[in-house]
Amino acid sequence: MDIRDQVRSAVNIVDVVGEHVRLSRSGPSRYMGLCPFHNEKKASFTVHVVHQFYKCFSCGAGGDVFKFVQETQGISFYEALIVLADRCGIAMPKRGNYSDEDSRRRGAILRMHELAQENFQANLKSAAGEAARAYLARRGVAAETIERFGLGYSDRSGRALMRVLESQDFSAAQVEESGLVGKRQDSSMYDRFRNRLMFPIHDESGRIIAFGGRALAADDEPKYLNSPETPIYKKSRVLYNLHRAKEAIRKEDRVILVEGYMDAIGVSAAGFPGVVASCGTSLTSEQIQALARHSRHMVMNFDPDPAGANATEKRIDALLQEGMQIRILELDGGLDPDEYCKDHGAEAYAEKLRQAKGYFHWLADRARGRFDVHTSEGLVSVLKFLLPAVNRISDRLERVTIANDLAGYIGVDRGLVLDSFRKAVVNGQEKTFARQKVVLRHDERILLQALLNDEEIRGQVLEVLKGIDAVRSFPSERIFQALFALHDGGGRISFDDLYARLEADDQQMLAEAVLNADGQASPEEVMAAVASMRKSHNEELRRQLKLKIKEAERAGRWEDALRTTGELQNLERDTRERA
Questions:
Q1: Left (φ > 0), alpha (ψ -120 to 50) or beta: where does 63 sit?
Q2: Is residue 504 part of a domain?
Q3: What CATH number is associated with residue 155?
Q4: pLDDT tens digit string along 359-385?
Q5: CATH number at residue 481
Q6: Cα(300)–Cα(328) distance, integer angstroms
Q7: Structural domain for 322, as ranges
Q8: Mean pLDDT of all residues in the chain?
Q9: Does 339 lie in the same domain as 253?
Q10: CB neighbour list of residue 5: distance below 8 Å, 6 or more residues apart
Q11: What's the CATH number where 14 sits?
Q12: CA gap 254, 276 in Å, rounded
């Protein structure tokens, strides 16, 4: 068996997708959830157990388990194959036909990051890591937490990691491309990270793809140094700790967003594992979508100083546009999340989570602090301050609801607020993926489902269908022709093989016919569908013959009219005999 088929048969797509999307059963063979590839509030994303295939009936995304891993992790097919093979304990061939130059290059960089991690962890435990261990002790980081988060130390010499990499079979180009080293003007290379506490950064499947390093010497700048972008690391796609947090996020239907590595580690260690860090960067739509696959409910817990509040406001815009529901957690005493958990304990932090304000109430409170709400001018200023944020809500009904809520919250006449927001509500544009829908006949659906599900029925029916001309007049004609071609070629016939042969519109049609179906049609239903097809064929022939008779009579070609009338009578006699 081919390695791809071997992995495909061993992996359940529902389990794989379920690690990224909150799925609920909607039938014996189907699960539904919110699409991870576009912003939606009503589930249109289907995963089919029998066909091991996913399809979004809004944006059109679809594919098998390999495609899902490729799309969600931004990796090549070969890397997806490795990820899934490792998941189910299947050994990959030493030289796979699927491997390409790009995959080999990325594989080498991944291996270098594994070696770097081993080196950094060993350094932290050595005499050279004393200062890093002392820093962690001051921050109250337990040994178990250090191990769980893979913390390490980069040697101050600037050549320790280079020596490790040079001892392996990596080319100079690969080493330079890894992001783990820097290059001097004389072309010599040196360790990028020196004398720093090291935080490994993982992709969502748990592979180390980058590092962050905190300076341990007061005069080292910058305070935090991150890996540059590489073939395996695109910072716009990655959030720190998501690979550990995603299970808890789905279970709790809530993600806690903090600003830095130590905050994520401290909050998680306090007993709140569903926490991720933005690491000081602006949130991108890719990062937000990665979170939304697991939950659309977010609690933001940035530092309580003005810079933290400003960072919160800046990140909100993108979150609102992606349909996230946001609450703001504010901590007392100027403490960051890590410090608060250590000083006040897990229960106090849990209570703060419960008390977290909805974003618009938090924003209204900020506006109240800036403007005098006891004057009409101040109230107008508050409205102007709130209006841009409300306008960014993609759903117009939600905009109206929040406008009403804010009206009561800030003590302004509801009519005035609604008038202010009316233009935004009327003119707000929402994303839509609506497309013209082609409705298939019941017999078309029955036959497509049966031909893909049952090899015995396929053997009985396929040749019969080839001889029924009516198939060529159906909306599904191209799907049946592709099915005939697969059969004639002697290859495997499965949903994904057929799907791959079709254009986008026909792929959508096939998915709607097959993936939305539960159960298996009986042999009687299948034969009834064949009879219905044949009846349609005869009706089409009858229509064409009657048209020919009329045209011949109109033109005075009486012999042609008589001959065609005879053909029509023969057809009707045969139809009666078969009935």
A1: left
A2: yes
A3: 3.90.980.10
A4: 999 989 988 888 887 777 777 788 878
A5: 1.10.860
A6: 5
A7: 242-355
A8: 85
A9: yes
A10: none
A11: 3.90.580.10
A12: 11
